[in-house]
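Hi V.,

You were right to ask for the full record rather than a summary. Here it is.
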Amino acid sequence: MNFLENIFERLKSAGNVAVLQEIHPSRVDGVSGNELLARVAQARAFIVSTGLKSGDRCALLGANGIHWVAIDLALLAEGITVVPLYSRQAPSELVTMMKDCSPARLLCATSELRDSITAVWPALPPTTLFVEVFSRDANGRAGFADGEASKQIDAKLLNLVDPITIIYTSGTSGEPKGVMLTAGNLNHIVPCTTARLDRLMAMYPKQLRPEQIFHYAPLSFAASWLILLTALSRNSVFSLSTDLARLADEMKVVKPDYFLNVPTLLERIRGRIEAQMAERGGVIAGLFNRAKAAFARKQSGARGAADALWLGLANAILFRKIRRAIGPNLKALICGSAPLAVETQRFFMMLGIPVLQAYGLTETTGICTLDDPQNYAPGFVGPAIPGIEMKVGENSEILVRGPNVFPGYWERPEATGKALEGGWFHTGDQGEVNAEGNWRIIGRVKNLIILNSGHNIAPEPIEEELKKLVPAAEHVVLVGNNRSYLAAIFASGAGSANGLHSETAQQAVDRVNQSLPHYRQIRAFCISAEPFSIENGLLTANGKLKRDAISERLREPIEELFRKKTG
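Predicted structure:
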């Protein structure tokens, strides 16, 4: 069976047991296996009634929700190529993507989203709102009965090499490209993620209830979609966040066993906990700080005589309460999308919460590596998943080969040829692998800054050090390509209180420069008056820096940085 048939079999076996739910402020809306199958059947009937046929492309635009999931499964089952779009992206960017792939129809969550697209592109393809998809079936009936749906659900034979989805990359520079993924890609990857989660849950053999999974990342992203498909294949309940401002409250409702994270959220949780401990002061703050120091020594192999005492006291008095506040059933936090600071990973380990890292790109069906829950190392992203080959190429670039690698970009043969040159996918990421086969990500090849002295500098490690020293700076960007020295830009995130001060930034720059060779030292800096956000076009849809856009927007301040003396 293919991955989709496995999902349908799992939903049938779940019967009237909950498998998927939305968390709202005053209620939880959930569906059982039978109810989800009924909605999929209803969506399939609508799709057939529109004349959409196997091989057509259909854009899917909306926030996470049960309707989104049911329509996605229905399109896949009918052999339609799904083009998922991120609802928070600028309408002009969404239009660019749709014009590129020419969908036969747009299925849209709300009239507001539809109208925002129409304002930019009046000639958009035929559009249907989600509520209209589920209003009536193709024969005019008001939906299917659960039992009837479960009998009708099947998956058409999916061709292993034809695209089943086109997911547009974030586009850190230039226009985004449509990454084609196939049933063959998913048939390999879903069992791999399932096997890793099996390893995690095997550590808790007494748990007999379904796994509780919390999810807030957009399902239009490859890794996010992958965790959805994996969850629907397992004995689990997949709970969707509906309000990013209420994540803490939603997690208290779900009490998850694990969930997918981006580094930004974990950094904020860590910062909030450390701030709370500092505010309490006195004995509590002292115990917390002594435990942190003891854990750091333990990790470095230089244990002190009283370290076990401090860690034991902190666990009994503080860490257990913190773990319960984050999630009383939490087995692990899973983190991907960007490198996680090793200090943050160790911080959660100190609390007794494993942080398991994954590495991958949309072009690799979301992942290449996954931490083994029973054997992982801080600062690394795990070994290559079974069946996948990885090696280090020129400029320390990570190259990948295997059944998870995409067949190409939509109608971009030159970009496809360059990305897959020599039969290996060129990730653009720089990495290194240790003797145990664990990978570490050290930067981006295309982000390399080349000074006019000829020195090549990976900006990410320096940027991360500066961010750690300036907590109010959510983003730090190094600039200096074809210049004689490096400069830095500090910026807050959207919605952050702007507590950035020149004195703090100068102290951080001075401290970082002490450990750097002369050509990697920062000679000037500025503080951006404008925060970096998705909405203002300075971050990609998944929160990565759009370096070209930042350089263009801040052209004058950057030029001023390089008018200064090198010192």
